[in-house]
Design goal:
mainly alpha
């Protein structure tokens, strides 16, 4: 029973009530937080026996999923209406492509030149071009054997 109580408390932290989720971030006292937990528990404990059964947890999960689906449907519908610029109830290719994210480079050529041109001669030599990437390779090569294993690559990506 302790583990179920802990799981419920942790789920309450992970899935705050709609009122808490929509409010702007602000300080919350432990007492107010505990009152919110008690209120959520009370609402979930539909048979009022002081415990949450599997059926009560299932019902709460279904209720939250329905609320999340309704909110998502509202957002998708609003976005669709925004994209449907000719208001014909469907998206043509032009309207659809207009919603695609714009591609941008992370850095301008001038920024890249400034970043990579270590001797400041206004050009990037092959060594200047390779140096940062080779440094990253060397950093990722944990055992310094000159080979990046899949594990070393995964670890480097997660940093």
């Amino acid at each position: 029973m302790k583990s179920l109580t802990l799981a419920i408390a942790l789920s309450a932290l992970a899935i705050p009530s709609a009122a808490f989720a929509q409010a702007a971030p602000k300080a919350v006292t432990r007492g107010a937080f505990e009152n919110n937990l008690n209120s959520r528990f009370g609402a979930m404990d539909t048979n009022h026996d002081g415990n949450l059964s599997s059926a009560e947890l299932t019902a709460e999960q279904q209720k939250e999923m329905q609320q999340a689906k309704a909110a998502l449907n509202q957002q998708v519908t609003a976005r669709f209406k925004q994209l449907d610029t000719n208001k014909d109830g469907s998206l043509n290719l032009q309207e659809f492509l207009a919603a695609a994210p714009q591609l941008r480079t992370a850095e301008s050529p001038a920024q890249l030149l400034q970043k990579l041109d270590s001797n400041k001669d206004g050009k990037i030599s092959a060594n200047e071009f390779k140096a940062p990437q080779l440094a990253n390779f060397n950093k990722a090569d944990a055992n310094k054997d000159g080979t990046l294993t899949p594990e070393e690559q995964a670890k480097a990506r997660s940093r």
